[in-house]
Specification:
- This protein has 319 residues and is of the alpha/beta class.
- The protein folds into 2 domains: 155 residues, Alpha-Beta Complex (Quinone Oxidoreductase, Chain A, domain 1); 131 residues, Rossmann fold, CATH 3.40.50.
- The protein is built from 10 helices and 15 strands.
- The strands form 3 sheets. Strands 3, 4, 5, 6, 7, 14 and 15 form a 7-stranded mixed beta sheet that branches. It has a 6-stranded parallel beta sheet with strand order 10-9-8-11-12-13, with helices on both faces.
- A hairpin with an 8-residue loop joins strand 1 and strand 2.
Amino acid sequence: MPTSTAHSMYAVRQTGYGGPEVLQVARAERPVPGPGEVLVRVRAAGVNPADWKIRAGLANHRFLQPPFTPGMDLAGEVEAMGGEVTGFDPGDRVYGMVYPPGGAQAQYTLARADMLAHVPSGADLVQAGGLATAGLTAWQALAKAQVSPGQRVLIHAAAGGVGHFAVQIAKAHGAHVIGTARLEKHAFLRRLGADEVIDYTSEDFTRVIRDGVDVVLDPLGDDYGHRSLTLLPPGGVCVDVRQPNPGRPEVRAKAQERGIRFTDVTVAPNAKDLADLIALASRGQLRVAVQQTLPLSEVAKAHELSETGHVKGKIVLIP
């Protein structure tokens, strides 16, 4: 990719709604930070399922009028700051979240200062670039569930972006973790700390788990919510993190009938949670599993891989 000039940059531009072909890399004006904003030189931009769902028009983001820049996860260095920003200096390593239309899949992006946190020295920016969205989703979901030592926690799609973080965070809370994943991902999950792993392609998790569970984290929806409720006792917790999930009202009603606490989570970025999450990583209790890094020019390939639903951990773009 050619080098950007002093006042320009290269950014992914989504030109319409549709397949990966609507994504192009083009020269754009480098943004200027306003009050409360930080201009970040992006070194790594994680790819999330939300990115391709927005691209395909499947998420509730039709208010976005193309062209716009996609992407939510970022890590990089502070380039400049607008007024009213404190706690950051040029050159500081940071990570966090942004939202389209000024997304993260660009050489530079603007981020609200309260949606960023410092990356400790020695921490890898590529890993930090894949942490924020899925990591915060898992962190906030398990916080809502109030996971405590000794509890049995079932995590569906445990090898995916949210799932592989949830396995590690639940273990850091002292839980007994059960994950569902394809057989070829079982060794990966055991390395992350999973106590039990179930191959959902050949086994019915409701039959394999004989002692029930205290908490379920469900990023899949469909029939997984209904089936998971059969494993929870009254007072148990089911956390739905699928966005959007049209089947949620029915599962919520069934959970209420059984005395099960049902809650859903939409990620809400804030500086404190971001700082707590990166601190967990710095202590060696949380690892971002990066399946593949790709240059910004291969953003369409990154979307195609994410859309398969079989990514192990995260895909990260390098602007």
